[in-house]
Amino acid sequence: MFARLLLVLFATHAARLSAGPSLVPQEQLKPTTTATELLNGVVQPRGLHNARQVILVHPTDDIVSVLSFATAGDVLLLANGVYKPEASTAATYHPYSTTGDPLFLASGVYSGLVIDKDITIAAQHTGQAVLDGQGKRRVLWIGNGHVLLKGLKITNGSGGDNGGGIHISGGDLTIRNTQIISNTADVRFGGGGGIYITGGTADIRDSKISANSASSGGGIFVNRGGKLTISNAEISSNTAVGHYGEGQGAGAYIFQGSTAKFSNCSIAGNQADSKGGGIFVEQGAHVQMDDKSAVQSNKPDGCYAQHGFWSSPACNKQ
């Protein structure tokens, strides 16, 4: 009987951990502990009976350490203020450089928060918690897990290659009520000033992606194997500025072999050097856009599709 009870408790605990991030409305999230208690060892390791924790974090706390101590399924609830994660655990380099090349060092970039487990990072009050890359590092690198970002502002990220604000190399990212603003990727080769998706998925809703810049995909770059679903969102004032004037896909760049679905989105005021002021779609990409979406006032054009294989009512309104 005791062995059976342990099996039941373990199965319940495992189910909690595999349930993914918390989708509880922000106003209903209540802290169960604080970052200080967690980091100072006041909170004991959770047993089989304990549900996921909601950890209250303040800007003065070391959010990188809090994330590392958190268990899969936990919620990091961020109090109002600016967070400047200082981790340096995800150095990257440009694919054309070698270890001894100065470009290797020059283009090395570090991610503030590196996530490889199920986690929720939510603002205690929507729009009042800021993750700031300070123009020195990428804000978030997501390599695995079910990750939920809610009510945040992600800004001033600087990706040495791809993904100034967020780089998704694996896992499933859900974004709700979040602003991704003023992030940059390398203007020589980089993609996805705001968000870069490769080998993972992103589900974005009720959010704003604005004033980001890169050589390709100033707002969003969806690479081969990446999947994007975006709805009720604004993609605006992003730029694609290439080193030789060949910047493409200011709002979004959808690479061959990737998929993207736009629903009720506003794609406006984006500007590319070359083609695809609103969206650039490569041949072999799979893109859908509903008629509630608006593509307007982008330069030099609204949507550019290689070989004219893709058309959209929204793009035809440009």
Overview of this structure, please?
The protein is mainly β. The protein has a single domain (2-316), classed as Pectate Lyase C-like. It is 12% helix and 34% strand. It has helices at 2-18, 35-39, 63-69, 102-106, 313-316; strands at residues 33-34, 54-57, 75-78, 81-83, 111-115, 119-123, 129-132, 138-142, 146-150, 152-155, 158-159, 166-168, 172-176, 179-181, 184-185, 195-197, 201-205, 208-210, 213-214, 220-222, 227-231, 234-236, 239-240, 252-254, 259-263, 266-268, 271-272, 279-281, 286-289, 294-296, 303-305. The strands form 5 sheets. Strands 1-2-3-6-9-13-17-21-25-29 form a 10-stranded parallel beta sheet. The N and C termini lie far apart (68 Å).
Task: Supply Rg.
Answer: 20 Å
- In the CATH scheme, the class would be Mainly Beta
State the shape. elongated
Name the structural class: mainly beta
Please tell me the total number of domains. Answer: 1
Topology:
Blueprint: H1 2-18, E1 33-34, H2 35-39, E2 54-57, H3 63-69, E3 75-78, E4 81-83, H4 102-106, E5 111-115, E6 119-123, E7 129-132, E8 138-142, E9 146-150, E10 152-155, E11 158-159, E12 166-168, E13 172-176, E14 179-181, E15 184-185, E16 195-197, E17 201-205, E18 208-210, E19 213-214, E20 220-222, E21 227-231, E22 234-236, E23 239-240, E24 252-254, E25 259-263, E26 266-268, E27 271-272, E28 279-281, E29 286-289, E30 294-296, E31 303-305, H5 313-316
Parallel strand pairs: 1-2, 2-3, 3-6, 4-7, 5-8, 6-9, 7-10, 8-12, 9-13, 10-14, 11-15, 12-16, 13-17, 14-18, 16-20, 17-21, 18-22, 19-23, 20-24, 21-25, 22-26, 23-27, 24-28, 25-29, 26-30, 28-31
